[in-house]
Amino acid sequence: MVYLKIVNIVSNNGVIDYKGLNIDLFVPGSQVYPLSGNYCLLGTTQEVVVGFHEDVIVLTAEDYESLKNEFITSQPVLMDYEKEIRQLKDENLELQMALIEIHSMLLEVK
To which H or E segment does residue 57 belong? Predict the structure, then answer.
């Protein structure tokens, strides 16, 4: 497997440009697309030599892992979905109870 960094991955018109690489040979799960940069990291089984394209940089496995881990650790930690669902259910219940209380108060006023 060859590890690559492709710079200028998004062209001016917003289209992804893999610089002539065969995407069918990309290793599934190896692609990383940082939102803050115009590049991607990936592994491929395609033979790629240094100088293949000026925007295609061949990486060592260590450099790939380092850049990938740097990207992963820079991402905000997402809230656990089950915890978020529980919080929303609790909030919904509190709002329903408040509406019932308001409705009861309005009925007493009549």
Answer: strand 56-59
Q: What is the pLDDT of residues 28-60, one digit of tens each?
A: 999 999 877 899 999 999 988 778 899 999 999
DSSP state of 15: -
Distance (Å, whole) CA 53 – CA 7 = 10
C-alpha 107: how far from chain center: 51
Cα dihedral 13, 23, 29, 70 in deg (nearest 10): -50
**And the tokens for 3?**
């590890």
CB count, 10 Å around CB of 41? 22
Integer CA distances (angstroms), 2 to 16, 65, 67, 69, 73, in order: 20, 12, 15, 18, 23
